[in-house]
Automatic annotation (TrEMBL):
Residues in the signal sequence: none
Gene: obg
Family: Belongs to the TRAFAC class OBG-HflX-like GTPase superfamily. OBG GTPase family.
GO terms, molecular function: GTP binding; GTPase activity; magnesium ion binding
The name this protein goes by in its record: GTPase Obg
Organism: Streptococcus sanguinis SK330
Annotated positions binding Mg(2+): S174, T194
Self-association and partners: Monomer.
Length: 436
């Protein structure tokens, strides 16, 4: 079984903030000592960190749940609880992180050591020191810690390579990679010998160097899932230059020019922006009979079907077996890389805006619905956060929450919807009676 994994779906949960404490100063010779309960500590974040030593997402195959520690509770003597350590999750270079619910890209992690907070820990709840006022110098109110962010993420690995080798199965991509780099890909006389991307570093005679990825062979219909389908097409997206390898000997009985058109059609169908990348046509297996004649016909068809004002792609006849033409090909590739800029994988519409973890001022503070059992149901991020941070073990805290609901207009809204005295109202699993 292959040990390469390039997609994963995981759950992350940041730590909750620690609860604030209700305590009072009780010391000899200190009458009416007042409140002394400290704040809770911050919950830990879940942080992704790029590790260049990782090559696949295999670590996420069996470990799909990541939960950071919660902050410590507040203590007496006004001492704050300790904040929790962040949970560090290491990912390979080239990992794209999406929100599974919205599909938006959160971040694209490509630099070694790059960090990104994918879930933020909740802040600690306030202790009763924070609620002391001249009118209420000894409050019995504290807050629970804020819940940590929880979300489902889609991870997608797209290998980092400057140059991608594409083409039909058995056109000689793996052999070419093994000759121009120190990589040792599997080579066999059958289709789909390569079932995972292989990477290698090339150094030219002039001292230039670049990374090359040998990608599993494409076939017609790959962009719709035929063969290995889109499973590895994603790895072409990061490349800046495409080496389109073609079996010019036609040993498989296919027409080289038709192969060229078919592969480009699959690239275009998968992602139109792949056609922006400059291509070099690699006419492989030139040591075979009929290759020279086939190359001549290929050039004629290419010229006849190309726009007269468009620049024809460069064609380099080579033989991976005899190493014919390789130096010229590599020099031309390095030269093309020098003048080819990076391609942005995602535009602004695909990226989620900078995450804001407070309340959305434009979002409604609460929503009202009704269950089948005639219970009124209150929901909404702001309301639910206030509810979760209320310590219902303290009467003063309960009264404070009731005042907050009234200030938000919940009472008026329920009354306008037809709520009557004694009706049940539910927030999460908590139920109480509506008092008109």
């Amino acid at each position: 079984m292959s040990m390469f994994l390039d997609t994963a779906k995981i759950q992350v949960k940041a730590g909750n903030g620690g609860d604030g404490m209700v305590a009072f100063r009780r010391e000899k010779y200190v009458p009416n000592g007042g409140p002394w309960g400290g704040d809770g500590g911050r919950g830990g974040n879940v942080v992704f960190v790029v590790d260049e030593g990782l090559r696949t997402l295999m670590d996420f195959r069996y470990n799909r749940h990541f939960k950071a520690q919660s902050g410590e509770k507040g203590m007496t003597k006004g001492m704050h609880g300790r904040g929790a350590e962040d949970l560090i999750v290491r990912v390979p270079q080239g990992t794209t992180v999406r929100d599974a619910e919205t599909g938006k890209v959160l971040t694209d992690l490509v630099e070694n050591g790059q960090e990104f907070i994918v879930a933020r820990g909740g802040r600690g709840g306030r202790g009763n020191i924070r609620f002391a006022t001249p009118k209420n110098p000894a409050p019995e109110i504290s807050e629970n810690g804020e819940p940590g962010q929880e979300r489902e993420l889609l991870l997608e690995l797209k290998v980092l390579a400057d140059v991608g080798l594409v083409g039909f199965p058995s056109v000689g991509k793996s052999t070419l990679l093994s000759v121009i780099t120190a990589a040792k890909p599997k080579i066999g006389a059958y289709h789909f010998t390569t079932i995972v991307p292989n990477l290698g570093m090339v150094r030219t005679h002039s001292g230039e160097s670049f990374a090359v990825a040998d990608l599993p062979g494409l076939i017609e219909g790959a962009s719709q899932g035929v063969g290995l389908g889109t499973q590895f097409l994603r790895h072409i997206e990061r490349t800046r230059v495409i080496l389109h390898v073609i079996d010019m000997s036609a040993s498989e009985g296919r027409d080289p020019y038709e192969d060229y058109l078919a592969i480009n059609k699959e690239l275009e169908s998968y992602n139109l922006r792949l056609m922006e990348r400059p291509q070099i046509i690699v006419a492989n297996k030139m040591d075979m009979p009929d290759s020279a004649e086939n190359l001549k016909i290929f050039k004629e068809k290419l010229s006849a079907n190309y726009d007269e004002f468009a620049e024809l792609p460069q064609i380099f006849p080579i033989s991976s077996l005899t190493k014919q033409g390789l130096a010229t090909l590599l020099d031309a590739t390095a030269e093309l890389l020098d003048k080819t800029p990076e391609f942005l994988l995602y535009d602004e519409s695909e990226m989620e805006e900078e995450a804001y973890y407070g309340f959305d001022e434009e979002a409604p503070a609460f929503e009202i619905s009704r269950d089948d059992d005639a219970t009124w149901v209150l929901s909404g991020d702001k309301l639910e956060k206030l509810f979760n941070m209320t310590n219902f073990d303290r009467d003063e805290a309960v009264m404070k929450f009731a005042r907050q609901l009234r200030g938000m207009g919940v009472d008026e809204a329920l009354r306008a919807r037809g709520a009557k005295d004694g009706d049940l109202v539910r927030i999460g699993k908590f139920e109480f009676e509506f008092v008109d």
